[in-house]
TrEMBL record, chain B:
GO biological process, one term: tetrahydrofolate biosynthetic process
Pathway recorded for this protein: Cofactor biosynthesis; 7,8-dihydroneopterin triphosphate biosynthesis; 7,8-dihydroneopterin triphosphate from GTP: step 1/1
HAMAP family according to UniProt: FolE (MF_00223)
Molecular function as annotated in GO: GTP binding; GTP cyclohydrolase I activity; zinc ion binding
SUPFAM superfamilies: Tetrahydrobiopterin biosynthesis enzymes-like
Domain GTP cyclohydrolase I per the UniProt entry, residue ranges: 43-220
Similarity annotation: Belongs to the GTP cyclohydrolase I family.
Organism: Eleginops maclovinus (Patagonian blennie)
Reaction(s) the record says it catalyses: GTP + H2O = 7,8-dihydroneopterin 3'-triphosphate + formate + H(+)
Designated name of the protein: GTP cyclohydrolase 1
InterPro entries assigned: GTP-CH-I_C/QueF, GTP-CH-I_N, GTP_CycHdrlase_I, GTP_CycHdrlase_I_CS, GTP_CycHdrlase_I_dom
Gene Ontology, cellular component aspect: cytoplasm
Classification via Pfam families: GTP_cyclohydroI
Enzyme Commission code(s) on record: 3.5.4.16
Length: 254, 222
Protein backbone atom coordinates (compact mmCIF):
# COMPACT_ATOMS: atom_id res chain seq x y z
CA UNK A 1 0.00 0.00 0.00
CA UNK A 2 2.89 2.28 0.91
CA UNK A 3 4.46 1.95 -2.47
CA UNK A 4 1.33 2.57 -4.40
CA UNK A 5 0.40 5.46 -2.14
CA UNK A 6 3.69 7.07 -2.96
CA UNK A 7 2.84 6.85 -6.57
CA UNK A 8 -0.68 8.07 -6.10
CA UNK A 9 0.10 11.36 -4.43
CA UNK A 10 3.22 12.60 -6.13
CA UNK A 11 3.66 15.50 -3.78
CA UNK A 12 6.67 15.61 -1.53
CA UNK A 13 7.35 12.10 -2.72
CA UNK A 14 8.61 13.71 -5.92
CA UNK A 15 11.73 14.79 -4.16
CA UNK A 16 12.26 11.50 -2.40
CA UNK A 17 11.92 9.29 -5.41
CA UNK A 18 13.98 11.68 -7.49
CA UNK A 19 11.55 11.64 -10.37
CA UNK A 20 11.99 14.51 -12.70
CA UNK A 21 8.58 13.90 -14.19
CA UNK A 22 6.33 16.78 -13.39
CA UNK A 23 3.10 14.90 -13.20
CA UNK A 24 3.73 11.85 -11.15
CA UNK A 25 0.55 12.76 -9.41
CA UNK A 26 -2.79 12.87 -11.03
CA UNK A 27 -3.80 14.91 -13.90
CA UNK A 28 -6.19 17.70 -13.25
CA UNK A 29 -5.78 19.73 -16.39
CA UNK A 30 -2.97 21.84 -14.97
CA UNK A 31 0.68 21.42 -14.24
CA UNK A 32 0.60 20.97 -10.51
CA UNK A 33 4.18 21.39 -9.49
CA UNK A 34 7.53 22.31 -10.96
CA UNK A 35 9.72 19.27 -11.45
CA UNK A 36 12.25 19.67 -8.69
CA UNK A 37 10.67 22.43 -6.72
CA UNK A 38 9.40 22.30 -3.16
CA UNK A 39 5.87 21.08 -2.79
CA UNK A 40 3.41 23.93 -2.80
CA UNK A 41 0.56 24.13 -0.33
CA UNK A 42 -2.76 23.27 -1.94
CA UNK A 43 -4.11 26.82 -1.82
CA UNK A 44 -1.15 28.20 -3.72
CA UNK A 45 -1.39 25.37 -6.19
CA UNK A 46 -4.87 26.02 -7.31
CA UNK A 47 -4.19 29.71 -7.44
CA UNK A 48 -1.13 29.29 -9.60
CA UNK A 49 -2.59 26.96 -12.19
CA UNK A 50 -0.78 27.08 -15.43
CA UNK A 51 -3.26 26.42 -18.21
CA UNK A 52 -1.29 23.60 -19.77
CA UNK A 53 -2.78 20.28 -20.68
CA UNK A 54 -1.00 17.26 -19.34
CA UNK A 55 1.08 15.64 -21.97
CA UNK A 56 -0.53 12.49 -23.18
CA UNK A 57 2.79 10.79 -22.78
CA UNK A 58 2.36 10.90 -19.02
CA UNK A 59 2.52 7.55 -17.35
CA UNK A 60 -0.54 6.55 -15.38
CA UNK A 61 0.12 5.45 -11.86
CA UNK A 62 -2.44 2.81 -11.12
CA UNK A 63 -1.57 -0.79 -11.86
CA UNK A 64 -3.48 -4.04 -11.77
CA UNK A 65 -1.70 -4.89 -8.51
CA UNK A 66 -2.81 -1.58 -7.04
CA UNK A 67 -6.34 -2.52 -7.97
CA UNK A 68 -6.17 -5.79 -6.10
CA UNK A 69 -4.64 -4.16 -3.07
CA UNK A 70 -7.25 -1.41 -2.94
CA UNK A 71 -10.19 -3.75 -3.22
CA UNK A 72 -10.63 -4.54 0.50
CA UNK A 73 -10.62 -0.86 1.52
CA UNK A 74 -12.95 0.04 -1.30
CA UNK A 75 -15.29 -2.76 -0.28
CA UNK A 76 -15.18 -1.59 3.35
CA UNK A 77 -15.99 1.96 2.25
CA UNK A 78 -18.98 0.71 0.29
CA UNK A 79 -20.19 -1.29 3.28
CA UNK A 80 -20.08 1.92 5.32
CA UNK A 81 -22.06 3.70 2.64
CA UNK A 82 -24.72 0.99 2.63
CA UNK A 83 -25.07 1.24 6.40
CA UNK A 84 -25.13 5.01 6.27
CA UNK A 85 -28.00 4.89 3.80
CA UNK A 86 -30.00 2.80 6.21
CA UNK A 87 -29.71 -0.48 4.37
CA UNK A 88 -28.81 -3.84 5.85
CA UNK A 89 -25.53 -5.02 4.28
CA UNK A 90 -26.26 -8.55 5.49
CA UNK A 91 -29.41 -9.10 3.51
CA UNK A 92 -29.11 -11.54 0.67
CA UNK A 93 -29.19 -9.06 -2.22
CA UNK A 94 -26.48 -6.89 -0.67
CA UNK A 95 -24.06 -9.52 0.64
CA UNK A 96 -21.49 -9.17 -2.11
CA UNK A 97 -22.49 -5.70 -3.23
CA UNK A 98 -19.49 -3.89 -1.68
CA UNK A 99 -17.12 -6.05 -3.72
CA UNK A 100 -19.16 -5.76 -6.88
CA UNK A 101 -19.51 -2.00 -6.49
CA UNK A 102 -15.77 -1.65 -5.80
CA UNK A 103 -14.84 -3.66 -8.88
CA UNK A 104 -17.37 -1.72 -10.93
CA UNK A 105 -15.92 1.60 -9.78
CA UNK A 106 -12.42 0.42 -10.60
CA UNK A 107 -13.66 -0.48 -14.07
CA UNK A 108 -15.25 2.94 -14.46
CA UNK A 109 -11.90 4.55 -13.65
CA UNK A 110 -9.67 2.15 -15.55
CA UNK A 111 -8.47 5.05 -17.68
CA UNK A 112 -6.04 5.75 -14.87
CA UNK A 113 -4.27 2.48 -15.59
CA UNK A 114 -3.74 2.88 -19.26
CA UNK A 115 -0.81 4.44 -21.02
CA UNK A 116 -1.41 5.87 -24.40
CA UNK A 117 1.95 5.26 -25.98
CA UNK A 118 2.64 1.79 -24.75
CA UNK A 119 -0.82 0.38 -24.86
CA UNK A 120 -2.52 2.05 -27.68
CA UNK A 121 -0.75 4.05 -30.27
CA UNK A 122 2.67 2.60 -30.87
CA UNK A 123 1.87 0.29 -33.69
CA UNK A 124 -1.01 1.99 -35.35
CA UNK A 125 0.39 5.19 -36.86
CA UNK A 126 0.88 4.78 -40.59
CA UNK A 127 2.38 6.92 -43.29
CA UNK A 128 -0.30 7.57 -45.83
CA UNK A 129 -0.52 10.24 -48.45
CA UNK A 130 -3.96 11.39 -47.46
CA UNK A 131 -4.86 14.89 -46.53
CA UNK A 132 -8.64 14.85 -46.58
CA UNK A 133 -10.77 14.85 -43.49
CA UNK A 134 -11.10 11.60 -41.57
CA UNK A 135 -14.10 11.38 -39.24
CA UNK A 136 -15.06 8.71 -36.75
CA UNK A 137 -18.45 9.57 -35.30
CA UNK A 138 -21.00 8.18 -32.84
CA UNK A 139 -18.39 6.68 -30.54
CA UNK A 140 -20.33 5.69 -27.40
CA UNK A 141 -18.74 7.22 -24.36
CA UNK A 142 -19.26 6.48 -20.67
CA UNK A 143 -17.64 8.53 -17.98
CA UNK A 144 -18.13 9.50 -14.33
CA UNK A 145 -18.92 13.01 -13.18
CA UNK A 146 -16.11 14.02 -10.84
CA UNK A 147 -18.44 16.17 -8.78
CA UNK A 148 -21.13 13.64 -7.92
CA UNK A 149 -19.61 10.29 -8.90
CA UNK A 150 -22.61 9.59 -11.12
CA UNK A 151 -22.42 8.39 -14.76
CA UNK A 152 -22.19 10.59 -17.82
CA UNK A 153 -22.85 8.98 -21.17
CA UNK A 154 -23.07 10.13 -24.71
CA UNK A 155 -21.37 10.16 -28.06
CA UNK A 156 -18.07 11.47 -29.29
CA UNK A 157 -17.39 12.60 -32.85
CA UNK A 158 -13.78 13.02 -33.89
CA UNK A 159 -12.43 14.48 -37.10
CA UNK A 160 -8.84 15.17 -38.13
CA UNK A 161 -6.94 16.31 -41.20
CA UNK A 162 -3.91 14.03 -41.53
CA UNK A 163 -0.52 15.44 -42.33
CA UNK A 164 1.00 12.40 -44.02
CA UNK A 165 0.29 10.25 -40.96
CA UNK A 166 -2.95 8.45 -40.25
CA UNK A 167 -4.05 6.58 -37.16
CA UNK A 168 -5.76 3.20 -36.94
CA UNK A 169 -9.45 4.06 -36.65
CA UNK A 170 -10.19 2.05 -33.58
CA UNK A 171 -7.36 3.87 -31.84
CA UNK A 172 -9.46 7.01 -31.88
CA UNK A 173 -12.10 5.11 -29.97
CA UNK A 174 -9.46 3.75 -27.61
CA UNK A 175 -8.23 7.25 -26.88
CA UNK A 176 -11.81 8.15 -26.01
CA UNK A 177 -11.98 5.14 -23.68
CA UNK A 178 -8.77 5.99 -21.89
CA UNK A 179 -9.81 9.54 -21.10
CA UNK A 180 -13.47 8.90 -20.48
CA UNK A 181 -13.00 6.05 -18.01
CA UNK A 182 -11.96 8.54 -15.33
CA UNK A 183 -13.52 11.07 -12.99
CA UNK A 184 -14.15 13.75 -15.53
CA UNK A 185 -15.58 17.07 -16.46
CA UNK A 186 -16.93 17.07 -20.01
CA UNK A 187 -14.96 20.15 -21.06
CA UNK A 188 -11.70 18.64 -19.95
CA UNK A 189 -12.46 15.29 -21.55
CA UNK A 190 -13.04 16.92 -24.92
CA UNK A 191 -9.81 18.82 -24.75
CA UNK A 192 -7.77 15.84 -23.58
CA UNK A 193 -8.91 13.75 -26.52
CA UNK A 194 -8.09 16.53 -28.98
CA UNK A 195 -4.69 17.20 -27.48
CA UNK A 196 -3.77 13.50 -27.41
CA UNK A 197 -4.52 13.14 -31.10
CA UNK A 198 -2.63 16.33 -31.91
CA UNK A 199 0.45 15.28 -30.03
CA UNK A 200 0.46 11.75 -31.42
CA UNK A 201 -0.09 12.54 -35.08
CA UNK A 202 0.75 16.21 -35.57
CA UNK A 203 -2.16 16.54 -37.99
CA UNK A 204 -3.16 19.74 -39.71
CA UNK A 205 -6.19 19.97 -37.52
CA UNK A 206 -8.38 18.09 -35.07
CA UNK A 207 -12.02 18.56 -34.12
CA UNK A 208 -13.75 16.76 -31.25
CA UNK A 209 -17.43 17.13 -30.38
CA UNK A 210 -19.07 15.41 -27.42
CA UNK A 211 -22.81 15.30 -26.73
CA UNK A 212 -23.62 13.73 -23.43
CA UNK A 213 -26.32 13.28 -20.84
CA UNK A 214 -25.32 13.88 -17.25
CA UNK A 215 -27.13 11.66 -14.77
CA UNK A 216 -26.33 14.20 -12.06
CA UNK A 217 -28.73 16.56 -13.87
CA UNK A 218 -31.27 13.93 -14.85
CA UNK A 219 -31.56 11.78 -11.74
CA UNK A 220 -31.18 14.51 -9.14
CA UNK A 221 -30.85 18.27 -8.79
CA UNK A 222 -32.75 20.02 -11.55
CA UNK A 223 -34.03 16.70 -12.95
CA UNK A 224 -34.21 17.71 -16.58
CA UNK A 225 -34.68 14.43 -18.42
CA UNK A 226 -33.96 15.44 -21.97
CA UNK A 227 -31.14 17.87 -21.53
CA UNK A 228 -27.86 17.23 -23.30
CA UNK A 229 -24.52 18.94 -22.92
CA UNK A 230 -22.46 19.57 -26.04
CA UNK A 231 -18.79 20.54 -25.90
CA UNK A 232 -16.28 20.85 -28.67
CA UNK A 233 -12.59 21.46 -29.19
CA UNK A 234 -11.24 22.62 -32.54
CA UNK A 235 -7.50 22.72 -33.08
CA UNK A 236 -5.36 23.74 -36.02
CA UNK A 237 -7.12 24.29 -39.29
CA UNK A 238 -10.47 23.35 -37.77
CA UNK A 239 -10.17 26.42 -35.60
CA UNK A 240 -8.76 28.77 -38.20
CA UNK A 241 -10.78 27.84 -41.23
CA UNK A 242 -14.54 28.18 -40.84
CA UNK A 243 -15.22 26.13 -43.96
CA UNK A 244 -13.36 23.11 -42.63
CA UNK A 245 -15.19 23.41 -39.38
CA UNK A 246 -18.51 23.68 -41.17
CA UNK A 247 -17.78 20.62 -43.23
CA UNK A 248 -16.92 18.65 -40.10
CA UNK A 249 -20.03 19.77 -38.25
CA UNK A 250 -22.26 19.00 -41.22
CA UNK A 251 -20.80 15.55 -41.69
CA UNK A 252 -21.27 14.58 -38.07
CA UNK A 253 -24.88 15.66 -38.16
CA UNK A 254 -25.93 13.56 -41.12
CA UNK B 1 -43.69 -5.98 -0.39
CA UNK B 2 -41.84 -9.20 0.23
CA UNK B 3 -38.77 -7.21 1.02
CA UNK B 4 -40.51 -5.05 3.59
CA UNK B 5 -42.06 -8.08 5.21
CA UNK B 6 -38.69 -9.77 5.50
CA UNK B 7 -37.35 -6.73 7.23
CA UNK B 8 -40.15 -6.63 9.77
CA UNK B 9 -39.72 -10.30 10.51
CA UNK B 10 -36.06 -9.80 11.14
CA UNK B 11 -36.95 -6.96 13.46
CA UNK B 12 -34.65 -4.61 11.67
CA UNK B 13 -37.13 -1.86 11.02
CA UNK B 14 -34.84 0.84 12.32
CA UNK B 15 -32.32 0.14 9.60
CA UNK B 16 -34.77 1.27 7.04
CA UNK B 17 -36.25 4.20 8.89
CA UNK B 18 -39.61 3.09 7.65
CA UNK B 19 -42.27 5.01 9.46
CA UNK B 20 -45.57 3.25 9.11
CA UNK B 21 -47.41 5.58 11.44
CA UNK B 22 -47.45 9.13 10.14
CA UNK B 23 -47.83 11.07 13.35
CA UNK B 24 -46.17 8.83 15.89
CA UNK B 25 -42.92 8.71 14.10
CA UNK B 26 -42.29 12.42 14.08
CA UNK B 27 -40.50 12.19 17.43
CA UNK B 28 -38.43 9.34 16.08
CA UNK B 29 -37.62 11.41 13.04
CA UNK B 30 -36.50 14.37 15.16
CA UNK B 31 -34.17 12.31 17.27
CA UNK B 32 -32.86 10.69 14.14
CA UNK B 33 -31.79 14.05 12.74
CA UNK B 34 -28.46 13.88 14.58
CA UNK B 35 -27.92 10.41 13.37
CA UNK B 36 -28.78 11.59 9.89
CA UNK B 37 -25.98 14.11 9.83
CA UNK B 38 -23.68 11.56 11.45
CA UNK B 39 -24.59 9.16 8.73
CA UNK B 40 -23.88 11.80 6.12
CA UNK B 41 -20.41 12.33 7.48
CA UNK B 42 -19.74 8.57 7.56
CA UNK B 43 -20.77 8.30 3.95
CA UNK B 44 -18.66 11.33 3.12
CA UNK B 45 -15.58 9.77 4.71
CA UNK B 46 -16.23 6.54 2.85
CA UNK B 47 -16.26 8.46 -0.42
CA UNK B 48 -13.01 10.19 0.44
CA UNK B 49 -11.47 6.74 0.98
CA UNK B 50 -12.88 5.54 -2.31
CA UNK B 51 -11.43 8.46 -4.24
CA UNK B 52 -8.04 7.85 -2.70
CA UNK B 53 -8.09 4.13 -3.38
CA UNK B 54 -9.04 4.69 -7.01
CA UNK B 55 -5.78 6.55 -7.44
CA UNK B 56 -7.18 10.07 -7.57
CA UNK B 57 -5.80 13.06 -5.76
CA UNK B 58 -8.45 14.11 -3.24
CA UNK B 59 -6.89 17.53 -2.90
CA UNK B 60 -7.27 18.64 -6.45
CA UNK B 61 -9.72 21.40 -7.07
CA UNK B 62 -12.39 19.42 -8.87
CA UNK B 63 -12.58 16.79 -6.13
CA UNK B 64 -12.44 18.97 -3.03
CA UNK B 65 -16.13 18.77 -2.17
CA UNK B 66 -16.92 15.66 -4.15
CA UNK B 67 -17.28 13.34 -1.13
CA UNK B 68 -19.98 15.58 0.31
CA UNK B 69 -21.76 15.99 -3.03
CA UNK B 70 -21.58 12.27 -3.75
CA UNK B 71 -22.88 11.44 -0.28
CA UNK B 72 -25.83 13.80 -0.69
CA UNK B 73 -26.50 12.48 -4.17
CA UNK B 74 -26.53 8.92 -2.86
CA UNK B 75 -28.91 9.92 -0.09
CA UNK B 76 -31.18 11.48 -2.68
CA UNK B 77 -31.07 8.32 -4.77
CA UNK B 78 -32.20 6.30 -1.75
CA UNK B 79 -34.73 8.71 -0.30
CA UNK B 80 -37.49 6.21 -0.97
CA UNK B 81 -36.61 4.38 2.23
CA UNK B 82 -38.03 7.21 4.28
CA UNK B 83 -41.31 7.47 2.41
CA UNK B 84 -44.42 5.33 2.66
CA UNK B 85 -47.44 5.05 0.44
CA UNK B 86 -49.68 6.12 3.31
CA UNK B 87 -47.86 9.45 3.47
CA UNK B 88 -48.75 10.33 -0.07
CA UNK B 89 -51.97 8.55 -0.75
CA UNK B 90 -54.15 9.35 2.21
CA UNK B 91 -55.78 12.46 0.80
CA UNK B 92 -55.95 11.58 -2.83
CA UNK B 93 -58.34 8.62 -2.99
CA UNK B 94 -61.73 9.61 -4.33
CA UNK B 95 -65.03 7.82 -4.71
CA UNK B 96 -65.88 7.75 -8.38
CA UNK B 97 -68.28 5.58 -10.26
CA UNK B 98 -65.77 4.54 -12.89
CA UNK B 99 -64.83 1.01 -13.68
CA UNK B 100 -62.91 1.32 -16.95
CA UNK B 101 -59.17 1.00 -17.24
CA UNK B 102 -57.06 3.93 -16.11
CA UNK B 103 -53.52 3.98 -17.48
CA UNK B 104 -50.63 6.28 -16.67
CA UNK B 105 -47.76 5.46 -18.99
CA UNK B 106 -44.21 6.62 -19.70
CA UNK B 107 -43.48 7.48 -16.09
CA UNK B 108 -39.72 8.12 -15.99
CA UNK B 109 -38.04 5.99 -13.45
CA UNK B 110 -34.53 6.15 -11.94
CA UNK B 111 -33.25 3.59 -9.52
CA UNK B 112 -30.01 2.08 -8.29
CA UNK B 113 -28.99 -1.49 -8.95
CA UNK B 114 -28.50 -3.09 -5.53
CA UNK B 115 -25.77 -5.34 -6.85
CA UNK B 116 -23.42 -2.75 -8.31
CA UNK B 117 -24.73 0.56 -6.96
CA UNK B 118 -24.99 1.83 -10.52
CA UNK B 119 -28.14 3.51 -11.92
CA UNK B 120 -30.80 1.88 -13.99
CA UNK B 121 -33.50 3.96 -15.57
CA UNK B 122 -36.44 3.66 -17.86
CA UNK B 123 -40.19 3.96 -17.97
CA UNK B 124 -43.00 2.55 -15.93
CA UNK B 125 -46.51 1.98 -17.28
CA UNK B 126 -49.25 1.50 -14.70
CA UNK B 127 -52.88 0.56 -15.18
CA UNK B 128 -55.68 -0.27 -12.79
CA UNK B 129 -59.36 -1.10 -12.99
CA UNK B 130 -61.01 1.00 -10.27
CA UNK B 131 -63.54 -0.54 -7.94
CA UNK B 132 -65.42 2.61 -6.99
CA UNK B 133 -62.23 4.31 -5.80
CA UNK B 134 -59.85 6.24 -8.01
CA UNK B 135 -56.54 7.77 -7.07
CA UNK B 136 -55.03 11.12 -8.04
CA UNK B 137 -52.96 10.47 -11.15
CA UNK B 138 -49.74 11.99 -9.94
CA UNK B 139 -49.91 9.67 -6.95
CA UNK B 140 -49.19 6.75 -9.22
CA UNK B 141 -46.00 8.50 -10.27
CA UNK B 142 -45.21 9.24 -6.63
CA UNK B 143 -45.60 5.58 -5.75
CA UNK B 144 -43.09 4.80 -8.49
CA UNK B 145 -40.74 7.36 -6.95
CA UNK B 146 -41.01 5.92 -3.45
CA UNK B 147 -40.07 2.43 -4.53
CA UNK B 148 -37.58 3.32 -7.21
CA UNK B 149 -35.49 5.67 -5.06
CA UNK B 150 -33.97 2.68 -3.25
CA UNK B 151 -31.40 -0.01 -3.87
CA UNK B 152 -33.48 -2.20 -6.08
CA UNK B 153 -33.85 -5.20 -8.29
CA UNK B 154 -36.20 -4.51 -11.21
CA UNK B 155 -38.39 -7.52 -10.51
CA UNK B 156 -38.97 -6.51 -6.92
CA UNK B 157 -39.57 -2.89 -7.84
CA UNK B 158 -42.35 -3.88 -10.25
CA UNK B 159 -44.00 -6.07 -7.66
CA UNK B 160 -43.77 -3.47 -4.91
CA UNK B 161 -45.47 -0.85 -7.07
CA UNK B 162 -48.27 -3.25 -7.99
CA UNK B 163 -48.78 -4.40 -4.41
CA UNK B 164 -48.83 -0.86 -3.05
CA UNK B 165 -51.58 0.17 -5.47
CA UNK B 166 -53.47 -3.03 -4.84
CA UNK B 167 -53.41 -2.61 -1.07
CA UNK B 168 -54.36 1.04 -0.98
CA UNK B 169 -57.07 1.11 -3.62
CA UNK B 170 -58.40 -2.44 -3.67
CA UNK B 171 -59.07 -2.19 -7.38
CA UNK B 172 -60.41 -4.96 -9.59
CA UNK B 173 -56.99 -5.33 -11.15
CA UNK B 174 -53.55 -3.71 -11.36
CA UNK B 175 -50.88 -4.02 -14.05
CA UNK B 176 -47.37 -2.61 -13.98
CA UNK B 177 -44.81 -2.86 -16.77
CA UNK B 178 -41.30 -1.47 -16.44
CA UNK B 179 -38.74 -1.23 -19.23
CA UNK B 180 -35.33 -0.08 -18.16
CA UNK B 181 -31.72 0.12 -19.25
CA UNK B 182 -29.25 -1.08 -16.66
CA UNK B 183 -26.00 0.84 -16.62
CA UNK B 184 -24.35 -2.15 -14.95
CA UNK B 185 -24.89 -3.97 -18.27
CA UNK B 186 -24.22 -1.01 -20.53
CA UNK B 187 -21.20 0.64 -18.93
CA UNK B 188 -19.43 -2.50 -17.73
CA UNK B 189 -19.66 -6.29 -17.85
CA UNK B 190 -21.21 -7.40 -21.14
CA UNK B 191 -21.43 -3.78 -22.40
CA UNK B 192 -24.55 -4.15 -24.49
CA UNK B 193 -25.59 -0.60 -25.33
CA UNK B 194 -29.10 -1.17 -26.53
CA UNK B 195 -30.31 -3.96 -24.28
CA UNK B 196 -33.36 -3.13 -22.22
CA UNK B 197 -35.02 -5.22 -19.50
CA UNK B 198 -38.79 -5.51 -19.32
CA UNK B 199 -40.64 -6.80 -16.24
CA UNK B 200 -44.35 -6.90 -15.56
CA UNK B 201 -46.75 -7.75 -12.80
CA UNK B 202 -50.45 -8.44 -13.46
CA UNK B 203 -52.87 -8.69 -10.55
CA UNK B 204 -56.60 -9.34 -10.39
CA UNK B 205 -58.52 -9.01 -13.66
CA UNK B 206 -55.32 -8.32 -15.56
CA UNK B 207 -54.08 -11.71 -14.51
CA UNK B 208 -57.34 -13.63 -15.00
CA UNK B 209 -58.66 -12.07 -18.16
CA UNK B 210 -56.45 -12.23 -21.25
CA UNK B 211 -58.55 -9.65 -23.11
CA UNK B 212 -58.04 -7.04 -20.42
CA UNK B 213 -54.34 -7.74 -20.41
CA UNK B 214 -54.17 -7.44 -24.19
CA UNK B 215 -55.97 -4.13 -24.11
CA UNK B 216 -53.50 -2.76 -21.61
CA UNK B 217 -50.47 -3.97 -23.52
CA UNK B 218 -51.83 -2.54 -26.76
CA UNK B 219 -52.55 0.83 -25.19
CA UNK B 220 -49.09 1.21 -23.71
CA UNK B 221 -47.47 0.50 -27.04
CA UNK B 222 -49.02 3.44 -28.89
Amino acid sequence: MEHSKQKQYGSSENKETGHSSVLNGHFDGTVKRPAAGPSLPPAAESGSQRPVMESWREERTRSVEDNEMSLPSLAAAYTTILRGLGEDPQRQGLLKTPWRAATAMQFFTKGYQEKIIADVLNDAIFDEDHDEMVIVKDIDMFSMCEHHLVPIFGRVHIGYLPNKRVLGLSKLARIVEIYSRRLQVQERLTKQIAVAITEALQPTGVGVVIEATHMCMVMRGVQKMNSKTVTSTMLGVFREDPKTRDEFLTLIRS
Amino acid sequence: MEYQQDVEINGEDEYLNICKHNGLCKKEKDSKDDTDSNKLSHIEKAYTTILGELGEDVDREGLLRTPLRAAKAMQFFTKGYKETTQDILNDAIFDENHDEMVIVKDIELFSLCEHHLVPFFGKAHIAYLPNKKVVGLSKLARIVEIFSRRLQVQERLTKQIASAISESLEPAGVAVVIEAAHMCMVMRGVQKMNASTVTSVMLGTFQDNPTTRKEFLALIKT
